[in-house]
């Protein structure tokens, strides 16, 4: 999963090994005082979280790897 926008990670809802369904919230970003949810595009399992709370991310940066 990639970040659709540049922003700051304010919450990580997923954990490595967690089963996910399409639409599940994985990470919440904040940009310009607005929050954006990054959701799971498909069903599967979270392989790795590539960011931490407080990290700055760029558009299209990989933030979660799913299997």
Give the DSSP E fraction (strand runs of 2 or more residues): over 45%
| End-to-end CA span | 11 Å
Report Rg. Answer: 11 Å
Strand order of the largest sheet: 4-3-1-6
Number of strands: 7
Fraction in helix:
under 10%
What is the number of helices? Answer: 0
How would you characterize the largest beta sheet? 4 strands, antiparallel
Which residues form runs of ≥5 with pLDDT under 50? none
Order of helices and strands: EEEEEEE
Supply the helix-strand structural class: mainly beta
Mean pLDDT: 95
**Which word captures the global form?**
globular
Structure description:
The chain has 67 residues and is mostly beta strands. It is built from no helices and seven strands. Strands 4-3-1-6 form a four-stranded antiparallel sheet, with no helix packed on it. A hairpin with a 2-residue loop joins β3 (25-31) and β4. It is globular and about 30 Å long.
């Amino acid at each position: 999963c990639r970040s659709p926008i540049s922003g700051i990670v304010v919450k990580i809802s997923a954990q490595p090994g967690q089963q996910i369904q399409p639409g599940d919230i994985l990470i919440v970003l904040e940009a310009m005082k607005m929050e954006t949810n990054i959701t799971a595009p498909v069903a599967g399992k979270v392989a790795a979280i590539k960011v931490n709370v407080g990290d700055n991310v760029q558009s299209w940066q990989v933030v979660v790897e799913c299997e």
